[in-house]
Design a protein that fits this description.
The protein has 180 residues and is an alpha+beta fold. The protein has 2 domains: 3-145, no CATH class; 146-180, no CATH class. Helix content is 24%, strand content 32%. The protein has helices at 25-34, 95-98, 108-111, 123-134, 166-169, 171-179, and strands at 6-8, 17-23, 45-55, 58-72, 79-94, 114-116, 120-122. Strands 2-3-4-5-6 form a 5-stranded mixed beta sheet. Strands 1-7 form a two-stranded antiparallel ribbon. A hairpin with a 2-residue loop joins strand 3 (45-55) and strand 4. Bound molecules: zinc ion (2 copies). Residues 149, 151-152, 154, 161, 163 line the site of one zinc ion (ZN).
Length: 180
């Protein structure tokens, strides 16, 4: 946990608090170490501007992410830099007010809520969640990426492969050949 990302709410004065953070290799490496299943798992470099402000009991967190994530192309399996630019706006409720006994079973609507616990806002988990939200479902190094040949594994962006043409290796054709 990066201590800079645990914000004591006592620091939020009238005008709020503005932070600019750099999330680099170390930040991504620590995340990966804590969460080995992390799919995108590449080093990234993000600049984050965050504004925190009290709104009654709740805390407004407004942020802007900009930079690059290093993703794996889902077609050709090459790593590429994926530019990220996104804004987020969250309202954090104090956790104690919501986790009363009657509310142990959270309804789906409640699950969308974000919380802060005690006297701190955990920007680490908020930023991880925001980074995950920026990930494309199917990362592509380029819209027109041709991917890999499913048979020989050749990178079809680099060269056409030498596999036999589709028709001659189709299992139907083969069967027919055996029978005749
Ligand atoms: Zn690709
Ligand atoms: Zn091939």
């Amino acid at each position: 946990m990066n201590p800079d990302l645990l914000i004591n709410i006592a620091r939020l004065k009238e005008a709020g608090l503005d932070l600019e953070l750099q999330l680099g290799k170390d930040w991504f490496a620590r995340w990966q170490a804590e969460d080995p299943d992390l799919e995108f798992a590449g080093p990234g470099s993000l600049t984050v501007q965050v504004h925190l402000e009290r709104l009654g009991h709740e805390i407004l967190v407004r942020g802007h992410l900009q930079g690059n994530l290093n993703l794996l192309c889902s077609r050709c399996l090459i790593r590429f830099d994926y530019p990220v630019q996104s804004d987020f706006d969250l309202l954090l409720a104090p956790e104690s007010e919501y986790l009363t006994e009657e509310e142990e079973e959270l309804s789906p609507a409640d699950l969308d809520r974000d919380f802060y616990t005690g006297e701190t806002v955990n920007l680490e988990s908020i930023l991880r969640e925001q980074v995950l939200l920026t990930l494309p479902l199917k990362p592509l190094c380029a819209e027109a990426c041709k991917g890999l040949c499913p048979r020989c594994g050749a990178d079809l962006n680099q060269e056409p492969c030498r596999c036999p043409r589709e028709a001659s290796t189709s299992p139907f054709v083969t069967q027919k050949n055996i029978k005749s």
